[in-house]
């Protein structure tokens, strides 16, 4: 779906590709000499994989992770052939040949996926690349310890498979003091010792900040590329990537005691001025933000009052001088000072969910990663 123009849309979403590239460079420097991949699953966390991934490839990123095979298939023609695309879920049953035909590298998460990939490689008479995932304490994806032991005893199961890497995933990496981090690290090292030597990958965004022991050969950050704070309770070293500006539809004066929005959950304590803005929960401005968020009008903080509707929110703009806010004007809903993490906290969720909920009705504007191009 193509995004509407700024003139026609209810809101403007600006995505700073240069900030994403800067964030990737910061993470890459942090994990060097290990390599740094980019996780671009879920349409690059809602920001548009078709724009984000090529910008990162141009900056030198060579490893990309998606979740679903279909995501990898869509991404393949958009990236140079020297870039490798890893499919975290592996190939679904009976879709292995499609995965191989496009040169996508599956992450093999189970003995069944290993058997199917090995069978395909043997049938083709040529090795097929794959990443092997072991579960080290999250119980979500990857071989369990007994399955890994079985694989180590029966190495013929890997026949035809060119192991590109061994990987695992951390359950609590954003909590630097969680004891499970060191347990997972120890289990991952033990798993490596059981298998033929190959590169290793353990860290997501937060894992990068657990220190060099966690870096191995390839880091796999996603959220931090898009500006989400990688470490709970610490200053965010990442640059802000998104700006969301909602368009004012109407401004009205209301008397003291007037209720606003569905359920009339907010009543004006005194005469007030209300701006109705064309963003709602259908746009990923979550309903749980009702009465809990603020917006900025030319730098002045204004409170969201009443419930978030499907297509609108209502702001108390009494503090903004009369006439200063007109239909068509833009108010800041997400910006550098009030980013995805702050909005997520107000909504009772995480920055990841705010980003991946961003709607399709926004006019999307990309600030180019090429510094020679003019920035708007
Ligand atoms: C999503 C995902 C990542 C990226 O995680 P972030 O926390 O966004 O950095 C890395 N590895 C795996 C297996 C994932 O599922």
Write a structural description.
By secondary structure, the protein is α/β, with parallel strands linked by helices. Helices cover 27% and strands 23% of the residues. It has helices at residues 17-31, 41-45, 49-58, 69-75, 96-101, 111-124, 145-153, 179-194, 205-208, 340-347, 351-357, and strands spanning 11-16, 35-36, 38-39, 63-66, 84-87, 105-108, 128-133, 161-167, 200-201, 218-219, 242-254, 259-260, 266-267, 272-277, 294-297, 300-305, 313-316, 330-334, 363-367. Strands 1, 11, 14, 15, 16, 17, 18 and 19 form an eight-stranded mixed sheet that branches. It has a seven-stranded parallel sheet with strand order 3-4-5-6-7-8-9. It has a two-stranded parallel sheet with strand order 2-10. The protein is elongated, with a radius of gyration of 24 Å. 44% of the residues are buried. Mean pLDDT is 96; it is low at 372-376. Pyridoxal-5'-phosphate is lined by residues 39, 41, 88, 169, 204-206, 220-224.
Feature tags:
376 residues, 7-stranded parallel sheet, 11 helices, disordered C terminus, binds pyridoxal-5'-phosphate
Short characterization:
This protein is α/β, with parallel strands linked by helices and about 375 residues long.
Radius of gyration: 24 Å
What sequence of helices (H) and strands (E) makes up the elements?
EHEEHHEHEHEHEHEHEHEEEEEEEEEHHE
Bound molecules: pyridoxal-5'-phosphate
Helix content: 25-40%
Total of helices: 11
Main beta sheet: strand number and arrangement? 8 strands, mixed
